[in-house]
């Protein structure tokens, strides 16, 4: 698999930190890329304050003037980030954390669990061994039992930790951890309220079951229906995991049948990729979006790129990463606060980006609460 720019940046930063100063030509050879690519990467990292650039060479930045213990490269604080993926949804979360760390003169190092919760602990221990002094943790949980089965170790960490886009059950050992997440119930409410305001009855939910976000969307759907005084129009349609064509066709047929029978005229689909694929398949079956079905996607990663641009709920992913990193820096004694405050559970509100798939006309708009 081709290495991403972010992965290459992390390798470049590791080399510079290890050597203090490195020549661009040496970095190009070690990274297996052209000097032009390295110069472009160095320009990006210099703008973010992660390296210092001189003619033909790159240096690890000194701590900012006035910071205690500013003795050179090794004194820069290190934040570890454990994520289930570095693509799609979590790419923006990682970018936000990276930006906040750079502004504070800290280095962010990343490890990926690939949604294997049984490997989260080992990945976190690897971050600690690499010098992380605090951890941002988005566990690779997939099902409801994963927090209890694979999350206990987080309560025993020797460094400060902040949960990212994950919630813990009230009363569980993880409930006392700091956390920053999107309020997905609010995002679902925005979508349903918008569709109802356009004259539709209760929208149908089509959602996956294999991630904490999917489960939060499902739970939020029940709450949103109650808040709006609506009855469940049809059982929630299961959107299958990737690589399940039979399950996908079953979900499409269930949605198609509900619309043809007149039970629903609008739907919320988690996630963007599933929504785009469903719209394509419904078109093959003769059903038009938004003519026959008004549709809103959840995530807003690629929704705007569909043939008919999809209205989508947009969780504040980059802000989640940024605020989580700032909170972790505070816990490490490196934030703006004079003393760490009480533990915090921060829930950030998504926005609804209105496009053509729900019958909107004209330019894109953002619907707020």
TrEMBL record:
Superkingdom: Bacteria
Family matches, as SUPFAM superfamilies: Periplasmic binding protein-like I (SSF53822), Winged helix' DNA-binding domain (SSF46785)
Keywords: DNA-binding, Transcription, Transcription regulation
Domain HTH deoR-type: 5-60
InterPro entries for this protein: DeoR_HTH, LacI/GalR-like_sensor, Peripla_BP_I, Tscrpt_reg_HTH_DeoR_CS, WH-like_DNA-bd_sf, WH_DNA-bd_sf
PANTHER family reported in the protein's UniProt record: ALANINE RACEMASE, LACI-RELATED TRANSCRIPTIONAL REPRESSOR
Name the record gives this protein: Substrate-binding domain-containing protein
